[in-house]
Amino acid sequence: MIRVKTVTLYTQPECPPCEIVKLYLKEQQIPYIEVNIKEEPNARSYMLNVLKSYSTPTVTVDDQVIKGFQMEELAQALDLS
After folding, report:
1. If we measure between CA atoms, which residue out of 63, 69, 68 comes closest to residue 77?
2. Radius of gyration over every alpha carbon of the chain, rounded to an integer in angstroms
3. SS3 34
4. Positive or negative torsion for Cα 65, 71, 3, 23
5. How far is residue 36's CA from residue 34's CA, in Å, rounded to a whole number?
6. I need a surface site. Which of 11, 24, 61, 72 has the fewest CB within 10 A?
7. Is the peptide bond before 41 cis (omega within 30 degrees of 0)?
8. Tell me: the pLDDT tens digits for 61-79?
């Protein structure tokens, strides 16, 4: 049985790398939760203080945090590389 990973994508408006990551996840048919740090109360604080990430996109794959635009690292976390 294949275990589905929990993927959360932290984004903000007018973030071209965020859009590329969204397209990539859709192309790979990876379900994900999108959290817009400009719209969600406390999301920016969580990203900064808990995830220790200071830029978008930030992606969590289960408990792994991928900070910034790191496509190779994201592919590895998703077992796609």
Report:
1. 63
2. 12
3. strand
4. positive
5. 6
6. 72
7. no
8. 999 999 999 999 999 999 8
3-class state of residue 43 by DSSP: helix
Distances (CA, A) of 78 to 24, 39, 45: 12, 27, 26
Provide the terminal-to-terminal Cα distance of the chain, rounded to the nearest Å.
20
d(C-alpha 13, C-alpha 75), whole Å: 23
Q: Which tokens is 35 given? A: 């959290």
- Measured on CA atoms in the order 53, 9, 68, 18, is the torsion positive or negative? negative
Tokens at residue 38, please?
């400009």
Q: How far apart are CA 3 and CA 5, in angstroms?
A: 6
| DSSP codes of every residue in 1-27 | -PPPPPEEEEE-SS-HHHHHHHHHHHH
pLDDT score for 1: 55
CB distance 74 to 26 below 8 Å: no
3-class secondary structure, 73:
helix
